[in-house]
Structures are given as structure tokens and as C-alpha cells.
Amino acid sequence: MTLIADGNTTVEHNLPLGVVYEDVLQFFSQSRTGYTPTLVVTYGGPAGDPYWRAHTEVWKHPLLQRHQPAAILNASNARREIAPEGDYKDDDSAREAAKLARRGVPVAIGAHGQEPGIAAHWELWSFARGGMTPVEALRAGTIEAARSLGYDADIGSLEPGKLADLVVLDADPTQDIRNSDKVSKVMIGGRLLDAATLNEELTGSRKRPAYWWEGADGAPGYTGPAGGGAGVHADQDDG
Hints:
Elements: H1 2-5, E1 10-12, H2 22-29, E2 34-36, H3 48-55, H4 62-67, H5 70-77, H6 90-101, H7 119-129, H8 134-141, H9 143-148, E3 166-169, E4 183-188, E5 191-194
Parallel strand pairs: 1-2
Antiparallel strand pairs: 3-4, 4-5
Helix pairs in contact: 6-7, 7-8
């Protein structure tokens, strides 16, 4: 509460409360402070990160398979722990964040450096688990996130004059928020890239260089030391 009273831009991580009552709702909503509950690492019990690792086959995700070494992706995700459904707290935190969002507080996704390439989507999905509509969850990942940081004049929505940074999806996330990771194309600064290869299309012809674990031609190469663990051999450390 002191962070809000002092006028900080955002409060990062969730308020460690099971229920946010009217006094906090009024106080928070009359401030200009945004809220980033960071559902993947929710306080109070198992969070969004362990929930989505347990309930989805992360290591089989087609885009993650293209952009992460198999040894690292598999080691982090294939052997999963699961808790009773009611033990997870990301949906509880999301439910309370939705109360603030509906009173005008800029509520934004976090991601916290969890699983690269998918954790931001887990945030969207957890907001929906907590009761946000798909559109409300998408706002938390786009315009509300931009607004909370003061960037909404340049990014966060598709409008004339804003930066041409966007994603193109193969399915409609307003019908099912889990479609948010069905990414087909990515545009960065007006450059259109294929999501699977990161090669430029239409706007240019630049090709993505091979990753360190790929061969020179982009074919799968090094996948980890014997036994399937992740790592880099000594002769590959010099670049």
C-alpha cells in the first residue's frame, strides 16, 4: 500500500492476499499506479508456471521446439509434478486482479523470465482461469501493459502512427485464450518474420543465422551431453 501511496508506476508481483476487499479496491483504483501480479510466480501456493508445465506438454510445442535446444526444453518440462487443482493460486490472484482492472487500474502480464517464448502466454491463460474474458486478458498483455508503463502512445494496439510491432495468429484468441500461442508471423519495426524460422518475408529477405546448437545449414546439431542433460561442450564455449 505504501508503494501505491508513494506514486510508483506499478506494483510488481501479486498482493499477498486471498481476497482484496473494498478498502484496497477503492484506494488502488483512485491512484495512477498499475498492477503486474506476475501470475507465473504467484505468492501463497503453486503458481501459474507449475500449473501450465503440469497441464500442457510444453516440450512438444512446435515453436519452442524450433527455438530451444531439445535437451534444455525436455529437461525443464517433460517430467512434471502436479498438485491438487485447488492448491494452485494463480487463478485466485488473477480473480482479484480482475476486480482492479474493472475499476480502471492498468493490470498487465508479467512473465518473470520463466519459460522463454511461452510464459507471457501462461500469464494470459491464468488471467482467464481467474475469470477475465479473453478480451480482458488480451488487454492485459497489450494496451494495459503499455499504458502502465507510459508507452501506449507508441505500442499496445493497432492504430495509425504506432510502431509496427505485432503478431499474426492462426486462430482466434477472443474465442479461446489458449489460441494466443498459435503464432504464424511476427512483425518487428515493420519487418515481417516467419515465426517458425524467423526468416524475413515480404518486407525483405534476411535469414536468421544458425543457433549455437544447429549445424551451419540450420539443421539440428548439438543437443546436449550424453544422458540428455543440457549444456555446452568446452570446445563450443569460445563464441
